[in-house]
Amino acid sequence: MTEENATAKSDNPERQSSHDSAAMTFAWASIAAFGTYFCMYAFRKPFSVALYEGLVVGDWEYKTVAVTSQVCGYMLSKFIGIKVLSEMPPGRRAAAVIALIMSAEVALVLLAIVPTPWNVICLFLNGLPLGMVFGLVLSFLEGRRGTEAMAAILCTSFIVSDGVVKSTGQFLIDQGVPQFWMPASVGGIFLAPLLGFVWMLTRVPRPNTQDEISRQKREPLNRQQRWDFIRRNATGLIPILIMFLMVTIVRSIRSDFAADIWASMGVARKPQIFTYSEIWVGLAVTIANGAAVLIVSNYRAFQVALAICVGGLAILLGATVLRHNGSLAPFTFMVAIGIGLYLPYVAVHTTIFERMIAMTRDRSNLVFLMYLADSIGYLGYVAVMLAKNAGAAREDFMAFFIPVCYVAAIASLACVLISCFYYHGRRSDFASD
Hints:
The structure is a single chain. The protein is an all-alpha fold. It has one domain (24-202, 216-430): Growth Hormone, Chain: A (Up-down Bundle), CATH 1.20.1250. It has helices at residues 3-11, 13-40, 62-87, 93-113, 120-130, 133-139, 147-174, 182-202, 209-215, 223-256, 258-264, 271-290, 298-324, 330-360, 366-390, 398-425; strands at 56-57, 60-61. The protein has a two-stranded antiparallel sheet. Helix 3 runs parallel beside helix 5. The chain is globular. The model is unreliable at 1-10 (pLDDT under 50).
């Protein structure tokens, strides 16, 4: 350190203290949020690693019905969260997270106890509370100058944990744990760490005055305020919601039917394969989306986030074409479409809605917009699962997956470009940004 820098530092103790405090808050909040949501996935995803071979519900495959049942609960939770979470006072969030997680674990125990096929109802009861956990965790992070980076780290948790908890579940099955007891067992392993991370969330300070000046103060919203925001931004917001719908459908299929996709490509199911593929995806997506925190201008950061979406969707389309032609290896394909899907998916979570609120200065909060998008996305996923069940069964899962990737990539690219041009036309409204 030079003498001038040392003098400047000593002359500005309050500024240095503020920087240290902001860095500590960033690190503490990031670890707490990552850990909480990482552990939450242990209560949601492990059941999907089992194949449930030979089991049916009427004329439908048991696993598809099970996945649809959980997603229906998760989807309903998103619709409930639009109102409940956007209106919830900060002091109730941590207790709500714990109550929701414990309810989900009870449902997993019932999954092992209730006979098939009736136990698919237990997965609905499992998904119902879990759907609101993400919004509660995100509420601790929004409206800060470091929100994008913290939210990117949070989103990395559900990318990486998706693979880790599935690997854990597959390991337990390989050790002889029955497939219906495996999900509750995985949840039990992660319960104690989760409680520790939730406690950490309760110690995260609220956004300071500088955060509120930079990103707009975030407050609970009533019904009229929610509708007002939608009406003012409908032309640019609706295409983003449609894009998110498409990406959510393909991302959910890839996640819930990862074992089936690997098997369809002729890859042996080893526990570590789920983790290895998601580590690469999580690393690429976190770096790309977290870097938006370096952009001060809300409008520029918003446009960069849309450009990231375009890049991701182009990767999705290119990987699909190459795999369809037999030019891409299975592992490379899974990593590439993971990156292609999660780049836009995480951009919405970290930057697009966060900066949309900040640049328009319209009263809103990030949780409301995310749950609006999530509810639409999971509604679409349920519709696709029902259509899959109603159609003829396919032994080759890729015969179903590849066309879905094509449609999602092309339609989503069109939607992102529409939104980009709309907000570019309104650029003068954000001149003071």
